[in-house]
Each structure stands twice: as structure tokens, then as C-alpha cells.
Write a structure and sequence with these properties.
The complex is a heterodimer. Chain A is mainly β. Chain A is built from 2 helices and 13 strands. The chains are: A mainly beta, B alpha+beta. Chains A and B meet through β2, β5, β7, β12 and α2 of A and β3, α3, α4 and β8 of B.
């Protein structure tokens, strides 16, 4: 039963959202690039964090994942899950520490559903942005973007989760509305998006729906947790949160 | 004396090249950092930054100008910020920001705008000059990501070795501390859903919270 994986117990009890979903959402910092991520699996001494691939492009060697004030060095497990803008990180953390994790929704989201996007802005403040799903694309855009919502994403929220009313992750935060300049959009595998749809997308924040990738993510996380030959947690200076 | 003269000529020639690359159609800023167009040179966390303001009023930094690489030629961070911000406006007003690409001008890597999709740098198309050895393709990719993706901004820092994300992954896989399982297929997995790894309830009252 997949819901058992990562379940906090609250979601299945029908509570609108897990009380501590913020504690499953992390900051991902790669050099000058700031993004977010969320814990999809854990065991003693390790957390598996899902984020956006495009957060990891800064040309710096050390990838930092911050849980609150503590920042740890992460390793890359999968840079582009199924070729989409999603990356899985493996984060050795001190043993004897507990963290929260989020459940992944297996059911695809539909137009009209309400979601909440979680993540951190560039300053490190936690944001919770609610909205309605306005667009689902059967043919995703480049990088796998296929869910459009009115939730107002901010820079820094990339890689954070979009959760449904049950607190389960339905998508990964990817792009904000109001592009900074005009650009043609393309579908995954080629083909230009027509002007009307381009205009509609410009008014929405986009995400990558996660349901069809849940199995790979979970299997991968499980595989890494089952082989506990882990490097110790590392807390490099550059991963510390600025006060 | 001849050598000295040649040396001076060489210096002047280099400055002329850099100036030609760094200068754009001029826009007068006066004492203000705000250009007339959509893009402007502003101050973000004390750093001269090429910025824009969205229709809903959000000021968003695009490039933070920290590099002093061209300062010796008179193009410090503030000047580059102003010049490049005005180029953003020039290219935007002619619709050419849609065709950003990479190229080389006078032997230097540049980010520029093509005249049309798929073509090279057009005339008067320079957006900004990169440092020798800087990865233009990756820089362009990161710049394009800032257009809509919710990460960023780009930072032009003083020269440092560039490490691509693929290199990082490869290095990690080859590192002695890396004990990860075998690589994971990117193909959809037909297997049934796995059982729980570990639920949070298993941790209740057992450990200190990480947060």
C-alpha cells in the first residue's frame, strides 16, 4: 500500500493537511541558486529529498539541503527523473534525528482541484500559496511541466511540493506566472505551443505532476535506504543558514 | 622603446576590444539606476543587479553583478549592470530576447540574440560578455531558466572553475564515500508499489527533531 510509505497518518485520517508539512519541506542551495525540496523517504541517518533539476545548475560542487537551521551536504541520486525537471537527492543526516516526510498522491490531479504550493523564498522564509488547478496537459511542455495553477509561486519555491487537501504531493513547483520576457514554448519531444495556450500558461504557475513518477521515486528512495553504507552527515560551512 | 610602445598599443587594443564588447547602444541613466524600459539596474542586497518588475509589482533580480573581472578595463559591476540592463531593453523592444543564443565576439564568449530562431549572433545583438573560459551554454541555460523558473537569480562572480551538474554527479559516484546502489533506470517501473519504508509514527518520541 503506497500510502503507507511516507505517511504521517494524518492524511489518511482525513485531516485537511498534515500539521508539520513545513518540516518535510527543505531549502536546497547550490552555490548561488536557491530552491526548495521535500522529503520523500527516510531512515536513520539518511533523508531522500526531491527537488527540481533546474535548482542544481550553479556550477558549484557542494549541494546543500537545509532542515531548518541545519544544513547538510547532499548527493545526487537521479538528476532527471523520467527526463522531467525533478531530481532526487540523498542527504546523510545525523543518526538519532527524526524528520517529517510527505506522502505522494497516486491519483492524478484534475482541473478545479485546490492545491497549496509550499517552499521557501530567496530569503529563506517559508511560503504557503494556495490556488486552483486550471490546466492539465496530456502532452507536457519541455521539462515535463503539465499542471497549471493559480497558486502564486515565488523565486526560491522551485522543487517544493504542491499538495492536495489531504496533504499529499500532487506536483513539484516549477515555474511562476508572468514570464520576465517573451519566449516561445515547446512541447516535450518537440512542437511549438500555439499562441493562445502560451498566453494562458503565462498567467499560471506550472508544476510537474508526480503521480506517474511516484513508483520510480519511491523505489529509488527505498533502494538507497535499504543499503545503509552511508557516508556520515557533513555540515559544510557554506550549508549553514545565514542568520 | 619599441617594445614599450608595442606594449602600450597592445594594452590599448585590448581595452578597445573589451570596450567594444561591453558597450552597447547608450542609454543615459543620469543619477538614476532605473532605465526607461522594463529592465533596469537596481540594488539587490547591496549588489548592482539587472532587474525587472512584473505586472503585479514584484521586483525580480535577473543577474547579480559581483564580478570585478572587467573592472581593470573600466567595466566594474555597476557599469556592466547599467549597460546590460539597457541591452535587455533594446533586445526586448525589438522582440529579440526571444532568440537568445551564445557566440564569440573578438575571441570572447558572449550571450547574444539571434536575428531569428536558429541563427547566430546578429548585428548589435550583444547582451553581455562572459569571462574567457566561462561556459556560455550553461550560462545561457541558467539565464533562460530565470525567465519563468522559480529559482535564480544568475550571479556573475569573479572567475571560478565551472563544474557542471553532470560532473558533480559523476564525481560523487566515483568518490570513495559514495556507496549508493546501482544507477536507476529512467524508464517507468512496471513493478507494484512498494511497502512502507518507514513511517513517521516509528519515530514518535524516539529521537530529537532535526528542526
Amino acid at each position: 500500500m503506497l500510502t503507507a510509505f511516507c505517511s504521517t497518518g494524518l492524511a489518511s485520517a482525513g485531516i485537511s493537511r498534515p500539521v508539520n508539512d513545513q518540516r518535510a519541506v527543505v531549502r536546497v542551495i547550490h552555490g548561488e541558486s536557491n530552491g526548495s525540496g521535500f522529503v520523500v523517504g527516510q531512515a536513520k541517518g539518511v533523508a531522500l529529498v526531491l527537488t527540481s533539476n533546474h535548482v542544481l545548475n550553479s556550477g558549484q560542487k557542494i549541494i546543500c539541503v537545509q532542515f531548518g537551521q541545519l544544513g547538510f551536504e547532499a548527493r545526487v541520486v537521479n538528476l532527471k527523473i523520467h527526463g522531467k525537471d525533478m531530481a532526487l537527492l540523498y542527504v546523510p543526516i545525523p543518526k538519532g534525528r527524526s524528520i517529517n516526510e510527505l506522502d505522494i498522491a497516486l491519483k492524478a490531479t484534475r482541473v478545479g482541484d485546490e492545491i497549496t504550493a509550499l517552499g521557501y523564498d530567496r530569503k529563506g522564509d517559508f511560503l504557503r500559496r494556495s490556488g486552483t488547478v486550471k490546466l492539465t496537459l496530456t502532452k507536457p511542455l519541455e521539462d515535463g511541466y503539465n499542471l497549471g495553477t493559480t497558486a502564486d509561486l515565488e523565486k526560491g519555491m522551485s522543487g517544493g511540493p504542491m499538495i492536495n487537501k489531504l496533504g499529499k504531493v500532487v506536483a513539484v513547483n516549477s515555474t511562476h506566472s508572468e514570464p520576465l520576457w517573451e519566449q516561445d514554448l515547446f512541447y516535450e519531444g518537440g512542437g511549438e505551443v500555439d499562441a493562445d495556450l502560451n498566453l494562458a500558461i503565462a498567467k499560471l504557475s506550472m508544476g510537474v505532476s508526480i503521480a506517474s513518477h511516484a513508483r520510480l521515486i519511491i523505489d529509488t528512495a527505498r533502494g538507497h535506504i535499504k543499503k545503509p553504507l552511508l557516508p556520515n552527515a557533513k555540515l559544510p560551512k557554506q550549508c549553514r543558514r545565514a542568520k | 622603446m619599441v617594445c614599450y610602445s608595442k606594449f602600450l598599443q597592445c594594452i590599448m587594443f585590448r581595452k578597445a576590444i573589451i570596450a567594444s564588447l561591453l558597450l552597447a547602444p547608450q542609454v543615459s541613466f543620469g543619477n538614476s539606476v532605473q532605465a526607461a524600459g522594463k529592465f533596469y539596474c537596481g540594488n539587490y542586497d547591496g549588489v548592482p543587479s539587472t532587474m525587472t518588475t512584473t505586472k503585479s509589482g514584484k521586483a525580480i533580480p535577473i543577474i547579480l553583478w559581483k564580478s570585478n573581472h572587467f573592472s581593470g578595463d573600466g567595466f566594474g559591476p555597476e557599469r556592466r549592470c547599467q549597460e546590460v540592463s539597457s541591452r535587455f531593453n533594446d533586445l526586448d523592444s525589438t522582440g529579440r530576447l526571444r532568440f537568445l543564443t551564445t557566440g564569440r565576439m573578438n575571441g570572447m564568449p558572449v550571450i547574444c540574440a539571434a536575428v531569428e530562431k536558429g541563427s547566430g549572433c546578429g548585428e548589435g545583438s550583444l547582451l553581455y560578455t562572459l569571462k574567457a573560459g566561462q561556459n556560455a551554454g550553461e550560462t545561457l541555460r541558467n539565464l533562460l531558466a530565470i525567465r519563468t523558473k522559480v529559482a535564480g537569480p544568475l550571479t556573475e562572480t569573479t572567475q571560478r572553475p565551472y563544474i557542471s551538474i553532470d560532473d558533480i554527479k559523476n564525481a560523487q559516484e566515483g568518490a570513495p564515500t559514495s556507496q549508493a546502489p546501482a544507477s536507476v533506470s529512467n524508464q517507468p517501473d512496471p513493478k507494484p508499489a512498494p511497502k512502507a519504508i518507514q513511517s513517521n509514527s516509528d519515530h514518535k518520541g524516539e529521537n530529537d527533531a532535526l528542526w
